[in-house]
Here is the input.
Amino acid sequence: MPVYSVVLCILFPPLAVYLNKGSGRALVFSIVLTLLLWFPGMIHALITTDN
Here is the structure.
């Protein structure tokens, strides 16, 4: 995973998911997790963009 992707996952998780997976369930799930708490959204983004 490139360094810019990791930084983007940490700073703004939904954007990282969107750039990697596009719009869909993963993006909505990432937005919800980030709005609830930032940390779960970040973990989800790191796992989702790992592929």
